[in-house]
């Protein structure tokens, strides 16, 4: 069965393309869901026009994105995260996290869906991540996932904490007072003895 795709269909093709598909797949899936129509001469002509319009749109988008692609190509993005045993992260680094960090570094707002991650990152390390800006523009970023604690340790080493002066303990104060009382009593006793002798 020959059909014209009305929308992009994963694994099959993009809107406006003419495809030969199995009868059951076309009748039971593509046609009822409105993803495709039977290929009639008028529809084929409309599909050709739609394909040309899509090509023009892609060229315009590519021209507008080349500067962004040059900025992103080879950019090193460092994301700090908490990790446990064997450098395994407590959470995961997703396309959204990478998108936020890219925006913070470059000021470019990149849609998180354009960042191609097979699965979220769960380990510390360096990763090469593709950003699909358009069909033809796919710059690669270097994503470095580093230990969050390393930052805290570096700060601790840079600024040694000064220890506060130790306050005397209560026991030491009591001993000091007792010593003073004992001295005073000995002096009084010595004075009394000298008065008795006189």
Here the CATH topology of the largest domain equals Ribosomal Protein L9, domain 2
Q: For the largest beta sheet, what order do the strands appear in spatially?
A: 4-9-8-6
Q: Assembly state here?
A: single chain
Total discrete domains: 2
Report low-confidence residues grouped into runs of 5 or more. Answer: none
Structural class: alpha+beta
Characterize the structure shown.
It is a single chain. The chain is an alpha+beta fold. It has 5 helices and 9 strands, in the order ββαβαββαββββαα. It has a 4-stranded mixed sheet with strand order 4-9-8-6. Strands 2-1-3 form a 3-stranded antiparallel sheet, covered by helices on one side. The chain has a two-stranded antiparallel ribbon with strand order 5-7. Strand 8 (125-131) and strand 9 form a beta hairpin. The N and C termini lie far apart (138 Å). The relative contact order is 0.10.
Briefly, what is this?
The protein is α+β, with helices and mostly antiparallel strands and 198 residues long. Helices cover 46% and strands 21% of the residues.
